[in-house]
Amino acid sequence: MHQSAYVLLVLTTLFWGGNAVAGRLALGHVSPFSLNLLRWGIMFLLLLPFGLKHVRRDWPVIRKNLWLMLFLGATGFTGFAAIMYKALEYTSAVNVSIEQAAIPMLIIVLNFVLFRLKATWLQILGFAISLVGVALTATHGELERLAQLDLNFGDALMLLAMCCYATYTAMLRLRPQIHWLSTATVFSFAGSLAAIPFLYWEYATGNAFMPDLQGWVIALYAAVFPSVLSQVFFIRGTELIGSNRAGLFVNLIPVFGTLLSVAILGEALHTYHVMALVFVVIGITIAEWSGRRAAGAKLP
């Protein structure tokens, strides 16, 4: 069970790490909120032929929980992605990737506030170590900037985006126990609906434009890999080991995102980025080791 969850969650974070790179490559080829609507709209159309029969079968349960499922889809899909794509106009893909390491700590806080679900002290220590990496990235290696609140606007947007995804992950435990294709189909429909107001605002301000050829390629990548595959894998991984431990794997996004950003975008790799990644890897190792002990799992 644990091995299956690990494979699913590692692939999820690999695709999500690539999503930050895709968002950066999209600049000038498709506007952020156009990309957001295309991403979830294409995902919905791809899932619909396979998920429709399951949605029909599960509809009585879905109908009873419809507002919750629409909220989860809007928050975890569009809320996070739309704000992240906008953040990439102001900050680098490396920064966006590494800053997502703060999501697991936000998940732990929300799980405790909403459900009184406690984490172990070693898990908290591991997440705290990861947060040092996030702070190093957000402040560009100058931690004193935290006291001055002198942060990049894109980094501030990412904080809002991370709150959206942490809320989604913590509240996944409330979703009805229906077929995973039903869940993914309804969530992608909700994400598509929620993307429309963002696109309308972008259009009203004169900033919306449809994709060119490169923009369509990026939209298709975003729809298939960080959307269809990643969301399905993450939902299943969360079912297998719980949201606290599954959320921990978000800390792998900085590793994949940074490597892909340097390799594909040619972005600079600074010393503080390397230090941040070291803190993230140490943090994830400590926290997952503690989580497995608490769950009674046998270490390999």
Automatic annotation (TrEMBL):
InterPro entries: AA-Vitamin_Transporters, EamA_dom, EmrE-like. It is found in: Cell membrane. The keyword Protease does not apply. GO terms for cellular component: plasma membrane. Residues 4-138, 153-286 form the EamA domain. This is Membrane protein. It is a multi-pass membrane protein. Signal peptide: none annotated. Pfam families: EamA. The chain crosses the membrane at residues 38-55, 67-88, 94-114, 121-139, 151-168, 180-201, 213-234, 246-266, 272-291. Its main location: membrane. Keywords: Cell membrane, Membrane, Transmembrane, Transmembrane helix.
